Amino acid sequence: MANPILPPLKPITIKERISVLFIERGQLDVIDGAFVVVDKNGVRTHIPIGGVACLMLEPGTRVSHAAVTLASRVGCLLIWVGEAGVRLYASGQPGGARADRLLYQAKLALDDSARLKVVRKMYDLRFKEKSPQRRSVKQLRGIEGARVKKLYALLAKQYQVPWTRRNYDHTNWGSGDVINRCLSSATACLYGVSEAAILAAGYAPAVGFIHTGKPKSFVYDVADIFKFDTVVPLAFRIAGRKPRNPERDVRLACRDMFRQEKLLKRIIPTIEQVLAAGEVERPAAHQEAVPVAIPNKEQIGDDGHRG
Description:
The chain is an alpha/beta fold. It contains nine helices and eight strands. 37% of the residues are buried.
């Protein structure tokens, strides 16, 4: 009997996906063609992997080769993290970066004038005002740090949360106070969806403009644009309630917020907007470039579409 002819993949655009899911203490596998988590009792939980932007894999999670292959085919980012998502150990790269986008990003980052223009645009979007003129990237970074400290203090006062400073030890999760644990969990969620969007659009997480020298520099750059409009106030609000399980409450709240705010729909256009501020011509894709990861005859014109 001939094998059945399966219909071609029709991947879901990044902007239409669930933002992030956390998995802990289970085996990720593909059983009967479905992506599942199998717990220690053998209970299967199905995950619609093609409709998720990224999976955060916590300690106690094992992943089969078939699961990684399927996640890559449908463009779902796998991220291996520490307890509560505080430390990032490794991540996949579904489909691979686009060479033309990577060259464009690198050209902007290596040109001092273009890089400063990109940083100014990030500053404008983050603080809803024009950045100070005749300031270097280093000076803008210092101004940003001072403003961020004030914003933390204002939010602490608004939600009546005891606050000293942003402080946590990634090697000892329980050592942090409630608000720092809430902030760490919230920013981990934001970093995950930001990285998924960056990779989906074909850019490199390591090539940053404000942040440099780290594997996720561009992830931090992009996430910071949205941080104080989304996850930071949410973290303070939840900490103000004195929750029993702050990490879980923060994750659920982030998931709901990302969906309500349509965050995934906003990230990629924002990336294009800040890079365009560098006023550098985008290089054309090479005629011998490797084709997209998931061929799709119907091009929908969305940069977050892996096809």
